[in-house]
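Reposting from the mailing list since nobody answered there.

I have sequence plus structure tokens for a pair of proteins and want to know whether others read the tokens the same way I do. The first protein:
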Amino acid sequence: MLVIEGLTAGYGGAPVLHGVGLHAAPGKVTCVMGRNGAGKTTLMRAIMGQLRASSGTIHLDGEALHGLPAHEVPRHGVALVPQGRRLFGPLTVAENIEIGLMTRRKGRAVREHVLDLFPRLRERLDQQARTLSGGEQQMLALARALCLEPKVLLLDEPTEGLQPSMIRLIRDTVLKLKATGVAVVLVEQRVEAVLEVADSVAFMAQGRVAEVLPAHGLTPQSPQFATWVGV
């Protein structure tokens, strides 16, 4: 269980998150929604240790993550697929995957499992990451994250700019991970995509979690989407 309590963080002394609390349970998908500037990406960065929290706590299975240097957080079982993917463009697909394996010292079996999830990447192992299509780059970013065999997977706008077939692939992968007990925290703006996979939806506004609701009680016409997301 990922448990965030009272998390405050920001940039250059200007707070963006104000006492955020959020729980992400194994085998569940927690979607985080909100307008631009609500603090969603800042929350992802704070969980990963890329942004130092000024107060509050982050625990995974009772182990404190807050205060750890950023390079240590993935070794504790948290992986991030960031907005914009941030691949090593000049490196090949195989080399990007190897970097993911090295983080938690995983071996060939994990590599093969990841490539089975994304067979198109197996066909492009010697191709530079920057030459892949947008959908293929998103596959690679997700594959690299899964090389950590994470307990918690953070996805920041993973379907942005993708064609429908790639969006379906991302959805199916999230559902497979959910079935294996991975806790998924998904930042997403597309209401339909959220309702297809989510167990709960946390609505953020002005750096706070304004409301958390079970997804099964929501529809695309639910007023919360207009109130907190503007759709």
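The second protein, same order (residues first, tokens after):
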Amino acid sequence: MSPPEHFVVEYAINPWMDTTAPVDTELAVKQWEGLRETFVRLGHEVHVLMPEIGLPDMVYAANGAFSVDGVVYGARFKYPQRTAEAAAHRRFYDTIGWRYVTPSQTNEGEGDFTYLPAALGGLVLAGHGFRTEVAAHAEAQEALGRPVISLRLVDPRFYHLDVALAPLDDENVVYYPGAFSEASRSVLAQLFPAAILATEEDALAFGLNLVSDGRNVVLNSEATTLAARLREAGYTPVPVELSELKKGGGSIKCCVAELRR
């Protein structure tokens, strides 16, 4: 995670960013710290990547890379405003000694990649359509040695996979069907017949931009219907308020790069 000490909305590269809407950076830091403390309270170790001046979106740490079994497929951002973030993430992974694969294809890390270790022995789901090029899916498969399933995003409000779908445990997911093409919806239905489906209202509240440890599901506090469905399915919803960071087009998951050793 990377604290939003320099967080502002001074450019617009997704439908949620409004450069005329004021950002309370002090509140953003307070909310981010509450999120970090939530993960620590739930028993997770949090590494902090120090923010850099001139990179206001660095708080969205999920976009910097994607790792599986200590191998890191690096990010190559679509927009120049975020390009330098990739190097900051690489320095972190070099420090902890993980093998880093430099990408040649445009991709935005865990924004468009996620992993289910028990599905088909280890399955990567990968989004494309707005930020990540579909060619990056094949490159990630070669880098990580895991099968990759391509899913096409069709609604610009859900410009990354991580605002449309999330793993709940090692083999099941929750997603909003309207974010995907008809063919991709068919693929998801075949792969995950027991998936939880989110409403459009909860998806627009960034409810799917969540982090689950298989039991506790940390999600945006506005996604109340989804929280109820998760509770009914046996999970424990842990609501967190991130109103300021939503102004940049992200929420819980966007702030977290999961380290898969």
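Reply #1 (J.P.):
I read it the same way you do. The domain at 25-255 is CATH 3.75.10.10 (L-arginine/glycine Amidinotransferase; Chain A).
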